[in-house]
Amino acid sequence: MDALRDTDIDPKPLQGKRVAIIGYGNQGRAQALNLNDSGIDVVVGLRDRSPSIAGARGDGIATAPLLEAAASADLVMLLAPDEALAAIYRLIERHIREGAALGFSHGLAIRFGFIVPRPDLDVIMVAPKGPGTALRSLYLEGKGMIGLYAVEQDASGHAEALALAYGRALGCGRAGLLPSTFAEECEADLFNEQAVVWGAVPEILIAGFDTLVEAGVSEEVAYMECVGELKLIAELIEARGIAGMREAISNTAELGAVLGGPRIVDDGVRSRMRSILEDIRAGGFSNTLRDEEASAYPRLRAARDRASGLRVEQARRKLID
């Protein structure tokens, strides 16, 4: 799979077009700012009295009421939280111009039927593979964040060219844009969030910390060993890959990794990972997400409360205070 870069991408499909960014959170703000700096006519669509209006205007980005922004745009990018997109689309659907394009940075709303777009619309995805803060900082450094692009509905016959031009304007073409699908991006992203980086890794860090503290190791030392070194290994893997990371550490650390890693990540873990992926693909998680939003996020609120009270958090505060 070859990544497309700036020199491979024609910027013209986006030139002279207006982009409406719906939502001004982590991705919305970064994408609006990058587009603006790339010379794209961009407006942020927000509900009346949204607290984000002042922030967007302070950033020098034009704002408009939600329906007005959608009606004025050639490309409407839905960058609000996934579980809110269906309600937003219902509000703006009849106001979107005929033959315009509808865009996403995550495939969930389309993959699991939260939204069924009008047939006259192009439906595209450009998904930077990282948080909006990093997307913005890399752009300002003259660099870019690798991203995925996809077309779900090509009413105009030019949807792919538009997606690529949008990714280029975000700065993703500096690093590379890879072809994907809404389903592939969504399923892989949800799997990573649950089974790998955002779900499993923090639990391993907490379990390691607790194991050392229960065995009599001080909280500060346990924190530095089990949590503090995570950034170091992440930076090594980013710079050199997993094999290169192993070459960069001591023989003691490498042998420990070779012996200890498979004892933790065994066939049982791999089986449970496959189960998580199966549940995602069957729609179990997307249904739970809808239920969570409908009941005002009880699981998320409880999880945040638990996290703030963990001993590992107390150890962190001791080290940084």
UniProtKB/TrEMBL annotation:
> Which reactions appear under catalytic activity for this entry?
(2R)-2,3-dihydroxy-3-methylbutanoate + NADP(+) = (2S)-2-acetolactate + NADPH + H(+)
The biological process GO terms on file are: isoleucine biosynthetic process; L-valine biosynthetic process
Summarize where substrate binds, as residue positions. S250
Q: Does the keyword Amino-acid biosynthesis apply?
A: yes
Where along the chain is Mg(2+) 1 bound? D189, E193
Family listed? Belongs to the ketol-acid reductoisomerase family.
- Name it: Ketol-acid reductoisomerase
Native organism = Sphingomonas cremea
Please spell out the taxonomic lineage of the organism that makes this protein.
Bacteria, Pseudomonadati, Pseudomonadota, Alphaproteobacteria, Sphingomonadales
What gene name is given for the protein in this entry? ilvC
